[in-house]
Design goal:
Layout: E1 2-4, E2 7-16, E3 22-29, H1 34-43, E4 51-53, H2 61-69, E5 73-75, H3 90-93, H4 97-107, H5 110-114, H6 120-137
Parallel strand pairs: 4-5
Antiparallel strand pairs: 1-2, 2-3
Length: 139
């Protein structure tokens, strides 16, 4: 767990498939930048990845360049303070709701939402169990 002004917290980064089911999950401490989580997850993207939809926190030229080199469509809205704003497909960005819904479904589980676990590996294990039950076993 990382210490921030709000107390102890952590960040969960995820790669989802086209149906909003988590494929890769990565946990970082709260005060770490979103770029560290993005670097780890983008290094292990599945081969059949056609498009990446991210949020403003992942907006960087380096991430865009890495994805374009792999012939992946990039849909990341530019940050508000960015001087040269690259274009993005607004309609494709609406599919981001699938990812937000995935996080909401995970947080419906009390153990995940409140983070009772002190160890990161125990907490990530609880997230994996919840994700397996919610997204893969219920189908």
């Amino acid at each position: 767990m990382g210490r921030t002004k709000g107390g102890l917290n952590s960040k969960l980064h995820a790669v989802c498939d086209g149906k909003g089911r988590p494929v890769w999950l990565y946990l970082t401490v709260g005060q770490v930048s979103d770029f560290r989580g993005a670097d780890v997850l983008l290094a292990d993207l599945p081969d059949e990845t056609e498009e990446v939809i991210g949020d403003r926190a992942c907006d960087s030229n380096r991430i865009r360049r890495i994805l374009v080199e792999q012939n992946i469509t990039v849909c990341i809205p530019p940050k508000k303070n960015r001087k040269s704003k690259p274009p993005y497909d607004w309609h494709l960005c609406k599919k981001r709701r699938l990812i937000e819904n995935m996080f909401a479904k995970l947080k419906d589980r009390r153990r995940v939402a409140t983070r009772y676990d002190r160890c990161a590996h125990t907490f990530l294990s609880a997230i994996h169990i919840a994700a397996t039950f919610i997204f893969w076993l219920r189908e």
